[in-house]
Amino acid sequence: QVQLEQSGSEVRKPGASVKVSCKASGYTFAVYSMHWVRQAPGQGLEWMGWINPNTGDTTYAQNFQGRVTMTRDTSISTAYMELNRLRFDDTAIYYCARDVGFNYGTFDHCGQGTLVSVSS
Amino acid sequence: DIQMTQSPSSLSASIGERVIITCQASQVISDSLAWFQQKPGKAPKLLVYVASRLETGVPSRFTGRGSGTDFTLTITSLQAEDSAIYYCQQYYSIPYTFGQGTKLEIK
Q1: Rg of chain A taking only CA atoms, in angstroms
Q2: Residues B100, B80: contact at Cβ < 8 Å?
Q3: How many helices (H) and strands (E) does chain B have?
Protein backbone atom coordinates (compact mmCIF):
# COMPACT_ATOMS: atom_id res chain seq x y z
CA GLN A 1 0.00 0.00 0.00
CA VAL A 2 1.03 3.62 -0.53
CA GLN A 3 3.04 5.02 2.37
CA LEU A 4 4.76 8.35 2.88
CA GLU A 5 7.14 8.37 5.83
CA GLN A 6 8.32 11.80 6.95
CA SER A 7 11.28 12.78 9.06
CA GLY A 8 10.89 13.72 12.68
CA SER A 9 10.10 16.97 14.46
CA GLU A 10 12.54 19.84 14.24
CA VAL A 11 13.24 22.91 16.34
CA ARG A 12 14.99 25.86 14.75
CA LYS A 13 15.83 29.44 15.61
CA PRO A 14 14.56 32.33 13.49
CA GLY A 15 16.71 32.81 10.42
CA ALA A 16 17.78 29.16 10.28
CA SER A 17 16.83 26.53 7.70
CA VAL A 18 15.05 23.19 7.94
CA LYS A 19 14.90 20.26 5.54
CA VAL A 20 12.08 17.74 5.79
CA SER A 21 12.19 14.39 4.03
CA CYS A 22 9.38 12.19 2.75
CA LYS A 23 10.15 8.60 1.81
CA ALA A 24 7.61 7.01 -0.51
CA SER A 25 6.81 3.33 -0.84
CA GLY A 26 4.12 1.14 -2.34
CA TYR A 27 4.02 2.85 -5.75
CA THR A 28 6.25 4.09 -8.54
CA PHE A 29 7.71 7.27 -7.08
CA ALA A 30 8.46 9.00 -10.39
CA VAL A 31 4.93 8.75 -11.75
CA TYR A 32 3.08 10.91 -9.22
CA SER A 33 3.79 14.54 -8.41
CA MET A 34 4.41 15.37 -4.76
CA HIS A 35 2.85 18.30 -2.98
CA TRP A 36 3.90 20.01 0.22
CA VAL A 37 1.18 21.46 2.43
CA ARG A 38 1.52 23.04 5.85
CA GLN A 39 -0.78 23.72 8.78
CA ALA A 40 -0.02 26.22 11.52
CA PRO A 41 -1.27 25.32 15.02
CA GLY A 42 -5.06 25.50 15.10
CA GLN A 43 -5.18 26.87 11.57
CA GLY A 44 -6.19 25.68 8.11
CA LEU A 45 -4.22 24.14 5.27
CA GLU A 46 -1.77 26.04 3.08
CA TRP A 47 -0.38 24.72 -0.21
CA MET A 48 3.34 25.37 -0.60
CA GLY A 49 4.15 23.85 -3.96
CA TRP A 50 4.92 20.63 -5.75
CA ILE A 51 7.62 18.70 -7.50
CA ASN A 52 7.57 16.39 -10.48
CA PRO A 53 9.72 13.52 -9.19
CA ASN A 54 10.49 12.37 -12.71
CA THR A 55 12.00 15.61 -13.99
CA GLY A 56 12.63 17.53 -10.78
CA ASP A 57 10.53 20.41 -12.08
CA THR A 58 8.98 22.47 -9.31
CA THR A 59 6.25 25.03 -8.85
CA TYR A 60 6.08 27.08 -5.66
CA ALA A 61 3.36 29.23 -4.20
CA GLN A 62 4.27 32.90 -4.41
CA ASN A 63 4.21 33.14 -0.60
CA PHE A 64 7.23 30.86 -0.42
CA GLN A 65 9.15 31.89 -3.53
CA GLY A 66 12.78 32.49 -2.71
CA ARG A 67 12.62 30.64 0.61
CA VAL A 68 11.55 27.12 -0.31
CA THR A 69 13.33 24.46 -2.32
CA MET A 70 11.78 21.12 -3.21
CA THR A 71 14.02 18.34 -4.42
CA ARG A 72 13.95 14.59 -4.78
CA ASP A 73 16.24 11.59 -4.90
CA THR A 74 14.64 9.01 -7.15
CA SER A 75 17.20 6.35 -6.19
CA ILE A 76 15.67 6.21 -2.70
CA SER A 77 12.13 7.40 -3.58
CA THR A 78 12.43 10.39 -1.31
CA ALA A 79 11.22 13.96 -1.66
CA TYR A 80 12.60 16.87 0.32
CA MET A 81 11.35 20.30 1.28
CA GLU A 82 13.81 22.87 2.55
CA LEU A 83 12.61 26.15 4.01
CA ASN A 84 15.11 28.95 4.64
CA ARG A 85 15.15 32.13 6.68
CA LEU A 86 12.66 30.69 9.10
CA ARG A 87 10.28 32.99 10.94
CA PHE A 88 8.17 32.43 14.03
CA ASP A 89 5.08 32.07 11.84
CA ASP A 90 6.66 29.15 9.98
CA THR A 91 5.87 27.04 13.03
CA ALA A 92 3.58 24.40 11.58
CA ILE A 93 3.07 20.78 10.67
CA TYR A 94 4.44 20.14 7.20
CA TYR A 95 2.89 17.38 5.13
CA CYS A 96 4.09 15.76 1.94
CA ALA A 97 1.15 14.56 -0.14
CA ARG A 98 1.03 12.43 -3.27
CA ASP A 99 -0.89 13.81 -6.22
CA VAL A 100 -3.83 11.70 -7.38
CA GLY A 101 -2.13 11.44 -10.76
CA PHE A 102 0.38 13.40 -12.74
CA ASN A 103 0.07 17.11 -12.00
CA TYR A 104 -3.61 16.65 -11.22
CA GLY A 105 -3.53 19.22 -8.46
CA THR A 106 -5.00 17.44 -5.48
CA PHE A 107 -3.68 14.61 -3.38
CA ASP A 108 -4.82 11.23 -2.11
CA HIS A 109 -2.14 10.18 0.36
CA CYS A 110 -0.34 12.24 2.99
CA GLY A 111 2.64 11.63 5.18
CA GLN A 112 2.15 11.67 8.92
CA GLY A 113 3.35 15.26 9.12
CA THR A 114 6.51 16.85 10.49
CA LEU A 115 6.26 19.49 13.19
CA VAL A 116 8.66 22.35 12.66
CA SER A 117 8.90 24.71 15.60
CA VAL A 118 10.62 28.06 15.25
CA SER A 119 11.63 29.40 18.60
CA SER A 120 14.34 31.61 19.99
CA ASP B 1 -5.25 33.95 -5.78
CA ILE B 2 -8.61 32.21 -5.76
CA GLN B 3 -10.41 32.61 -2.43
CA MET B 4 -12.45 29.69 -1.16
CA THR B 5 -15.21 30.47 1.32
CA GLN B 6 -16.89 27.71 3.28
CA SER B 7 -20.06 27.86 5.27
CA PRO B 8 -20.95 27.30 7.94
CA SER B 9 -17.74 27.59 9.95
CA SER B 10 -19.10 25.08 12.39
CA LEU B 11 -22.20 22.99 12.87
CA SER B 12 -23.63 20.42 15.19
CA ALA B 13 -25.88 17.56 14.13
CA SER B 14 -27.17 14.28 15.47
CA ILE B 15 -26.39 10.77 14.37
CA GLY B 16 -28.51 9.80 11.39
CA GLU B 17 -29.10 13.38 10.23
CA ARG B 18 -28.02 14.98 6.97
CA VAL B 19 -25.69 17.95 6.76
CA ILE B 20 -24.62 20.14 3.88
CA ILE B 21 -21.38 22.12 3.74
CA THR B 22 -20.99 24.73 1.04
CA CYS B 23 -17.89 26.10 -0.63
CA GLN B 24 -17.79 29.11 -2.90
CA ALA B 25 -14.88 30.06 -5.13
CA SER B 26 -14.04 33.70 -5.88
CA GLN B 27 -13.85 32.84 -9.58
CA VAL B 28 -14.86 30.00 -11.86
CA ILE B 29 -12.88 26.83 -11.18
CA SER B 30 -14.81 24.42 -13.41
CA ASP B 31 -14.96 21.15 -11.44
CA SER B 32 -11.44 21.37 -10.01
CA LEU B 33 -12.63 21.00 -6.45
CA ALA B 34 -11.73 18.50 -3.75
CA TRP B 35 -13.06 17.86 -0.26
CA PHE B 36 -10.95 16.69 2.66
CA GLN B 37 -11.75 15.43 6.13
CA GLN B 38 -9.30 16.04 8.94
CA LYS B 39 -9.51 14.57 12.42
CA PRO B 40 -7.47 15.88 15.36
CA GLY B 41 -3.81 15.02 15.12
CA LYS B 42 -4.23 13.40 11.71
CA ALA B 43 -3.36 14.31 8.14
CA PRO B 44 -6.16 15.41 5.83
CA LYS B 45 -7.98 12.62 4.05
CA LEU B 46 -9.31 13.00 0.51
CA LEU B 47 -13.06 12.39 0.24
CA VAL B 48 -14.09 13.79 -3.12
CA TYR B 49 -12.32 15.26 -6.14
CA VAL B 50 -13.39 16.55 -9.53
CA ALA B 51 -16.22 18.03 -7.49
CA SER B 52 -18.23 14.80 -7.34
CA ARG B 53 -15.92 11.81 -7.72
CA LEU B 54 -15.81 9.77 -4.55
CA GLU B 55 -12.35 8.64 -3.54
CA THR B 56 -11.92 4.88 -3.29
CA GLY B 57 -12.96 3.57 0.10
CA VAL B 58 -14.99 6.62 1.11
CA PRO B 59 -18.53 5.75 2.24
CA SER B 60 -21.30 6.55 -0.20
CA ARG B 61 -23.02 8.76 2.40
CA PHE B 62 -20.57 11.47 1.27
CA THR B 63 -21.67 13.28 -1.90
CA GLY B 64 -20.03 16.18 -3.68
CA ARG B 65 -21.82 18.41 -6.16
CA GLY B 66 -21.30 21.61 -8.05
CA SER B 67 -19.42 23.30 -10.82
CA GLY B 68 -18.23 26.78 -11.63
CA THR B 69 -18.12 28.66 -8.34
CA ASP B 70 -20.57 26.89 -6.03
CA PHE B 71 -20.05 23.49 -4.48
CA THR B 72 -21.53 21.34 -1.74
CA LEU B 73 -20.53 18.37 0.33
CA THR B 74 -23.49 16.43 1.68
CA ILE B 75 -23.17 13.86 4.41
CA THR B 76 -26.24 11.70 4.93
CA SER B 77 -26.94 9.30 7.79
CA LEU B 78 -24.35 10.96 10.00
CA GLN B 79 -22.12 8.65 12.01
CA ALA B 80 -20.14 9.41 15.14
CA GLU B 81 -16.90 9.00 13.20
CA ASP B 82 -17.86 11.88 10.87
CA SER B 83 -16.90 14.35 13.59
CA ALA B 84 -14.03 16.28 11.96
CA ILE B 85 -13.04 19.44 10.15
CA TYR B 86 -13.88 19.51 6.46
CA TYR B 87 -11.93 21.54 3.92
CA CYS B 88 -12.56 22.28 0.28
CA GLN B 89 -9.62 22.87 -2.06
CA GLN B 90 -9.48 24.34 -5.54
CA TYR B 91 -6.85 23.02 -7.89
CA TYR B 92 -7.86 25.03 -10.91
CA SER B 93 -5.04 27.53 -10.66
CA ILE B 94 -1.84 27.93 -8.70
CA PRO B 95 -1.55 28.63 -5.86
CA TYR B 96 -3.97 25.91 -4.94
CA THR B 97 -6.05 27.17 -2.07
CA PHE B 98 -8.25 25.79 0.67
CA GLY B 99 -11.37 26.96 2.40
CA GLN B 100 -11.06 27.94 6.04
CA GLY B 101 -12.69 24.72 7.20
CA THR B 102 -16.01 23.61 8.64
CA LYS B 103 -15.99 21.96 12.03
CA LEU B 104 -18.64 19.26 12.31
CA GLU B 105 -19.66 18.14 15.78
CA ILE B 106 -21.86 15.14 16.38
CA LYS B 107 -24.33 15.69 19.21
Answers
A1: 13
A2: no
A3: 0, 11
- Beta-carbon separation of A63 and B95 below 8 A: yes
Q: Is B34 on the interface with A (CB under 8 A)?
A: yes
The predicted-structure confidence for B1-48, as pLDDT tens digits, reads as follows: 999 999 999 999 999 999 999 999 999 999 999 999 999 999 999 999
Q: Could you tell me the mean pLDDT of each successive run of 10 residues in chain A, 120 residues long?
A: 98 98 97 97 97 96 96 98 98 98 91 98
C-alpha Rg value of chain B to the nearest Å = 13
Find residue B24's DSSP bridge partners.
B5, B70
Report DSSP letters for A63-106, one per residue: GGTTTEEEEEEGGGTEEEEEE-S--GGG-EEEEEEEESSSS-SS
